Structures are given as structure tokens and as C-alpha cells.
Amino acid sequence: MLLAGKKVVVVGGSSGIGLSTAEMAKREGADVIIASRNVDRLDKAADALNAIAIPADVTSDESVASLFRSSGPVDHVVVTAAQLRTGPFKTVTMEDVRGTMEGKFWGAWRVAKHAEIRAGGSLTLVSGFLSVRPRPNSAIVSAANGALESLSRALALELAPVRVNCVSPGIIDTPIRAAMPEEARRDMLAKTAASLPVGRVGVGEDIARQILSFMANGFATGATVYIDGGALVI
User: Fold this and answer.
1) Residues 6 or more apart from 108 whose CB is under 8 A from it?
2) Are the C-beta atoms of 53 and 45 separated by less than 8 Å?
3) What distances in angstroms separate CA 74 from CA 33, 70, 114, 123, 215, one per listed residue?
4) Do residues 105 and 147 touch, judged by C-beta distance below 8 A?
5) Which residues pair with 36 in a beta bridge?
6) What is the DSSP string of 126-151?
7) CA–CA separation, 176 vs 186, rounded Å?
8) At a CB cut-off of 8 Å and minimum separation 6, what does 165 contact?
9) Which of 158, 164, 177, 227 is most open to solvent, judged by the fewest CB atoms within 10 Å of its CB?
10) What sign for the dihedral angle of Cα 112, 117, 119, 122?
11) pLDDT tens-digit profile of 122-142?
């Protein structure tokens, strides 16, 4: 098993890509800690995984510091947590803009600052392909994703010998899209699938496989990998 005897913390591990990553790491022999601000969902996921649950809010310095005081030294950390609030550039509120940066960028910054990762271990951030393929009404998400990718390269130098990488997903069918009306969600996913060379949208496991590859590959650092079904080449 790839991660036998390793301790893995997945921040945002109660759903979506984070939960898929935690499940896969557990199957590969890791001792898994999942963290999330949604306590009910976190406890259910931890029970299903036989993992440790630690409530944490990435927008709080003290909450993130407490998470890593509780977890102690670890081998691998993954940050999938994000609280995205977006809209048309001219009308989106500054409260929503700041909230997106707090949840996506500064949250990852806090985790990187407080995590005690053993030498040779890894930190993996999750951005999104809007960093290089922006679309209307999502400027703040594009900016946050681009900032995360830049941060991962900088931290690969500053945190060495800890390895730091970034995974940038395309359109993924995760519970975050459940907020959309169901008909609109299905229509969007179907149209996206039809446009991609692979003929489908992504699922959490697609991204989790790349995250685990970064954990296991001791020669990978400072890299950003786009897992988007070919969206960037069409």
C-alpha cells in the first residue's frame, strides 16, 4: 500500500474531493484525519471511514492552529476546503470577494503555516482551472486559484524538504453543485461532458488519484497539474 503507516490530514475532508481523497488514502493504508467546519457532516464521514474527525474553520487562525496542535506531526496534508462567493465583477460585494479569498486562499495559507509536516512529506493545495481559463462572473475565483498555484511554487522552496504541489481541477460533479437547481445542474454537466475530449465531467476520485500521486512521488514538488478532461486544449 502506498501510504502504509503515514498520517494524512485532509482539510475539507467531509465531502467532495476531500472525502474522495480521505477514502483513497485510507484504502492505501494511511491513518486519516479529516477536518471541516460542518460538524454533523464531518462526524458522519469519519464514522464511515473509521477516521479521526477534528472540527476546523479555515477562516480562523486559532481554529487552524488548534487542528494541528491536536493532530501533531503528520506526513501529508491536503487542503480542499473552500467557501466560494462570486458574481458579476461590477456588482459582487466586497464582503463576498473577501469571503472567497478568506476561505480559499488565506485558508490554505493558514494550513501551510500551522501544519507540522515531517521532512519528505507533502502539502497539496487544490485550485481550479479558472486560473487559466476564466469565465464571466467568476473573477474572484480565478484570482484565488491563480494565487494558490503561485503560493504552491513559492512554498515548495520555503518549506523544503516538505514537498508542495497543486492540483487544478476542471468541472467536477461534487456536492458543491447541489446548490444549483437540479435541472440546471444536469444540463450544465451534460453540455460540459459533450464538449470535453474524454466525454464526461470529472468526479472526486479523478482528483484524489492525482493528490495521492503527489503524496507518494518523492520527486514531485513545485508542480501544478491540471486535471480537466481536456478542457484546456479545446
Assistant:
1) 58, 79, 125, 148, 151
2) yes
3) 10, 11, 11, 10, 12
4) yes
5) 55
6) E--GGGTS--TT-HHHHHHHHHHHHH
7) 13
8) 122, 123, 124, 125, 152, 156, 214, 220, 221, 222, 223, 224, 225
9) 158
10) negative
11) 999 999 999 999 989 999 999
* Interval 178-198: pLDDT, tens: 666 788 888 889 998 999 999
Length of the chain: 234
Q: What is the DSSP letter of 172?
A: B
Is the pLDDT confidence value at 118 over 90? Answer: yes
Q: Which residues pair with 124 in a beta bridge?
A: 78, 165
Domain architecture of the chain: domains with CATH? 7-176+204-224 (3.40.50.720)
Question: What amino acid is encoded at 228 in this protein?
Answer: D
- Positive or negative CA dihedral for 152, 58, 81, 91? negative
C-alpha 89/C-alpha 139 separation (Å) is 7
Helices (H) and strands (E) in the chain, counts: 8, 7
Enter the pTM of the model.
0.94
* Residue 224: pLDDT over 90: yes
Residue-level pLDDT at 24: 98
pLDDT in tens, 11-24: 999 999 999 999 99
Q: Output 27 or 86, whichever has higher pLDDT.
A: 27
How many other CB atoms sit within 10 Å of the CB of residue 13? 32
At residue 162, φ and ψ (nearest 5 deg) are -65, 135
Residue recorded with cell 504541489: 165
